[in-house]
Amino acid sequence: MNSNCALIITSIATPDNKVLQTFAQDCPKHKVDFIVIGDKPSPINFKLEGCDFYGLEAQRNLDFSFAKLVPERHYSRKNIGYLQAIKRGAKMIIETDDDNFPREKFWNSRQPNHTVSALQNEDWVNVYKYFSSGYIWPRGYPLEQIQKEVPLLIDNPPKEVYCPIQQGLADENPDIDAVFRLTQPLPHSFDINAKVALGDKTWCPFNSQNTTFYSDAFPLLYLPSHCSFRMTDIWRSFVAQRICWENEWFVLFDEATVWQERNTHNLMRDFEDEIPGYLNNSKICKTLGDLKLRKGKEHIFENLVSCYQSLIDINVVGAAEMPLLQAWIEDLTKLS
Fold first, then answer.
1. Which pLDDT value is given to residue 38?
2. Rounded distance between C-alpha atoms, residue 222 and residue 83, angstroms
3. Is the pTM value of this prediction over 0.90?
4. Mapping DSSP to helix (H, G, I), strand (E, B) and coil, where does residue 58 land?
C-alpha cells in the first residue's frame, strides 16, 4: 500500500464488527492510518486495537469548525474523518463502510495515472455494464437512462489520464438502488476485469464504499448533510465530476476489491430515501452541467460553492448546507 495513506469508515457498530476487526488487523500491516468516526448510537467505550475511534465528544474536541456544526445521526460526519486524516498527513484517502470486506487486491499499491479507455462527451454511461454481462446499474443512475447502450471501449483506444478519484466496485451485494433490490435477484458479482475512466461531459454516479481520493481532489470529498441519507455520496459524486471537468481530471472505475455482507436494511425505507434521486438526478446533472465554473485547481473551493448553491437553488439540498460547506473550506484552508 502507498505511504501516507488513511482509511476512513463511519460506523455505529460495536468493536466485534467483523469488517472493523479485519481492517484493524490489516491496516497496521500495510502502514495505513485507520480512522473510525462514530455517531450518537455508537458504544460509549468503543475500543479496538489497530484503529483510532472518534466518538461525538472526541470529534467536537478536534480543532475543526465543521465538527461543531455537522448534525448528529448523519453519514456526513465522515467528513470529520477526512479532515483528521489530512491533518495527520494523508496524501491518499480510501473510504469504505463497515459491511465491506477487503479482498487481497484491496491492499495493492495504487496510482493516480492510468492508461485506459477514457470516455468524454457521452452524457450518461452505466459503467457497471463494462464489468458485468448481467442486468445491473449503480445506485444513483437515472432510471430513465437504464436502457441506454454504453459506448464500445474498442472505439475508445486507451490513453494515459490523471484520475485523482477512483471507484472500486463491490461483489456479492454491490451498490445498487432499492428498485433493483426489490425486483432483481442477488447476490451479484462482477465477472469482467476492466478499467474505464470518465471525463468531460460524462456522468455516472460513484459511491463511498470503496473509493480512493488523492490530495488534489481532497476538497471534493465533501459529503452534504442537508439531503437524503441515500443520496449524500451520490450527489457528492455529481459535484465532484463536474469540478473534475474543469481540471481535465478523470474518475476511474476499477474492478471489485471488496465484497459486501450488507447490514440489515428496510428496502422500502431505502426506496423512500432514494425518491429524491429518482426524481432529480438528471435535473441535478443538467443544472451542474450548465454552470459556468472556473478552470484550474486554484478555483476548486469557489467551484464547490457554486455547485452547492445551484443545488440549493433548485431545492434538492437545504439552504442550511452552506454554513457547513464554508466550515469545510475554512478547515481545509487551515490544513493546507
1. 97
2. 10
3. yes
4. helix
